[in-house]
Amino acid sequence: MSLATALRVAAFVQFAIAITNLFLVRIMHWQADVVRMPLLVREVFRIHSFFITFTVAAFAVLTWRFAGEFATGATPLHRWLAGTIALFWAVRAAMQWTHYSPSHWRGQPARTAIHCALSAGYTAFAVSYALAAFR
Amino acid sequence: MNHDLLARGLFLGGLLHFAILSASALVPLVLDWRGELARLHPFMRSLFWVYGVFIVLVIVSFGTVTLLHADALASGSPLARSFCAMVAIFWLARLGVQFFVFDAKPFLTRWFFKLGYHALTVAFVVLTAIYACAAIGGSP
User: Fold this and answer.
1) pTM confidence score
2) Nearest-CA neighbor of A83 among A14, A125, A130, A135?
3) Taking residues A95-106, what's their average pLDDT?
4) Which of A2, A4, A5, A27 minimizes the C-alpha distance to A17?
5) Smallest CA–CA separation between B46 and chain A, in Å?
């Protein structure tokens, strides 16, 4: 697979992640937890969730539109943006292991599979964008 | 629009990102996030901090890319216009939150909190304007 194709796949999956993030509370059945949050915390949580969704969707759109140029490292701006997105996903991949307690998934096959799939996906994003950044 | 003026404006925009981050660093302390979050389920608490870290990372990224590539971002290239449009929408949305979502009045108990809050509002307006100009009027 060429790097441009890998970046287009990454763009598509990132867009899917952004859309999923909008419905995460409902998908994970967190409504009761969110309702129990103090008002300010609930507002901050929703706003942060919105901005993360927007950013990931924007990364997806930029990547889809400029995949070919990112893949060739067309200009320093292309390389820096690719590096920025690589860093974003590298930190996300690291946090999957360092920040979340293993108690959320250990001993539960379905959750363990999701944890591993997310880790692999985030790492693949980071590697793809890093390759583009260091062209 | 004049390229050099726009590049200087973008450089100022890059610096403003770091100024906003400095002010935002006080928010968890002022609003006692640690105490408020202690009541949440551990997973939700983790998720809350992850979101916070990524918002900081995004703002650092916007600021760094702008400071290092202000000239390229003012060039009006398709990527420059797209990136600037993305940042302009980001800050426009943040401005909307400032006016229509958060009710900050109960927390503006001291003059320096009020000053900081209004300074942030001005910063959001300035950032939206600078990046919108670059998205629409960038030129080589």
Assistant:
1) 0.90
2) A130
3) 82
4) A27
5) 6
* Cβ pair B86:A92 closer than 8 A: no
Encode A72-98: b = buried (16+ Cβ within 10 Å), e = exposed: ebbbebbbbbbbbbbbbbbbbbebbee
Angle at Cα A54 formed by Cα A49 and Cα A58, nearest 5°? 150
The residue assigned the tokens 């693949």 is: A124
Q: Which segments of chain B are extended strands (E)?
A: none
Q: Which pLDDT band, with edges at 50, 70 and 90, does B60 fall under?
A: very high
CB contact under 8 A, B57 and A91: yes
Residues B29 and B51: their CA atoms lie apart, in Å, by 17
Tell whether ipTM is more than 0.95: no
With contact defined as beta carbons under 8 Å apart, do A122 and A96 qualify? yes
* Residues of A in Cβ contact (< 8 Å) with B39: 36-38
- Residue type at A57 in one-letter notation: A
Query: Would you say residue B1 has pLDDT above 80?
Result: no
CA A108 vs CA A25, A46, A119: distances in Å: 20, 28, 16
CA separation (Å) from A18 to A50, B40, B89?
9, 24, 16
Nearest-CA distance A17 → chain B (Å): 14
Output phi, psi for B74, to 5 deg. -85, 0
Three-class SS of residue B105? helix
A37 to chain B: nearest residue by CA? B40
